[in-house]
């Protein structure tokens, strides 16, 4: 699906019109009626594909899974689906249909013909909490930036847009600089590079990634557990500073909306994790209400799964004076070099994992191509706070780090034996 958010990204013609209708009208329809309209419109195109892919929102995966079951091939097999998850899975699912969605989502995830992955560790753990499914994490690389850190504007520090964190930091940073006239650096607000006075959503195609890579460093005040701008700046190998108190900053946003936090219920047995997970291993609710009292212990527990905590070489500051000091004293070239090494290592592993996805689908459709030899490829690996990697396939002893389905592990084991 080309369509994630407005404006339209790549669909055109009739596809544009249909997807516009889905967002304007279809998502408010009962799912059976929407699915029927989807199949009538899209099956002529879908039937020409050997595998299907869905992403944000996950309701597209429900539509594809329903289409796959309704239109099996001549051997009764469903078309393979790759579900690459990026936001909470209940987004755009009507409340009265959520139980049906979760049931279908689990069936899709358990099918040996499908592959499911999340683009960040927080979401992977969130899916496990809601459904009991363990899905691997396959990170996003900001290769589209096509630039690397080059601090030509070495006396200027870029401050990321505040998002839902508010703009208070702009006033405070300016006051600190005014109170310390001998301070060598100046802060540049990202919003000032656009239109600082507008309240409208801005789509900009003139601000280049190259120009953004020229600042001394970037300071981020997180407003979600993972953000595209973080992936982009991290892929530039650009030193990134964030507040140390991630339990306060990193757990509010799209990934933790409390209205999307319903559990899968097993008939007559209650929530899935209450019946399948031992008491000592049950995880607290990962969804947070930004307008209610903060459960500190729960916030601390979940903050360690945010990208801000899991990616190595992120720089943490405990106060604004600490930030101003670190920006001057930290060896930023060494930080950038360490980020570069980590990015290159991750890219090799990510490419191998994507190759596994492709070859897995070729395996399911043996008439397409002769299967290539596959080496030992983990389901996925995610960075930890200490910079070590946790193989989400090899730590099966721990329920929070083992994330591959049985089907995925069997396929990986067979591939390893053949290599």
Kindly describe this structure.
- With about 425 residues, this protein is α/β, with parallel strands linked by helices.
- Among the domains are: about 15-110, no CATH class; about 145-250 and about 305-340, Rossmann fold.
- It has 15 helices and twelve strands.
- The chain has helices spanning about 15-25, 30-45, 60-70, 100-110, 120-130, 170-180, 210, 230-235, 245-250, 270-275, 295-305, 305-310, 320-330, 330-365, 405-419; strands at about 50-55, 80-85, 115-120, 155-160, 185-190, 220, 240-245, 265, 270, 315, 380-385, 390.
- β2 (about 80-85), α4 (about 100-110) and β3 (about 115-120) form a beta-alpha-beta unit.
- α3 (about 60-70) packs across α4 (about 100-110).
- It is globular.
- The model is unreliable at about 1-5 and about 370-419 (pLDDT under 50).
Q: What's the SSE blueprint?
A:
Elements: H1 13-24, H2 31-46, E1 52-54, H3 59-70, E2 81-85, H4 98-110, E3 115-118, H5 121-131, E4 156-159, H6 168-179, E5 186-189, H7 209-212, E6 218-219, H8 228-235, E7 240-243, H9 246-249, E8 265-266, E9 270-271, H10 272-276, H11 296-303, H12 307-310, E10 315-317, H13 320-329, H14 332-364, E11 381-383, E12 389-391, H15 406-418
Parallel strand pairs: 1-2, 2-3, 4-5, 4-6, 6-7, 7-10
Antiparallel strand pairs: 8-9, 11-12
Helix pairs in contact: 3-4
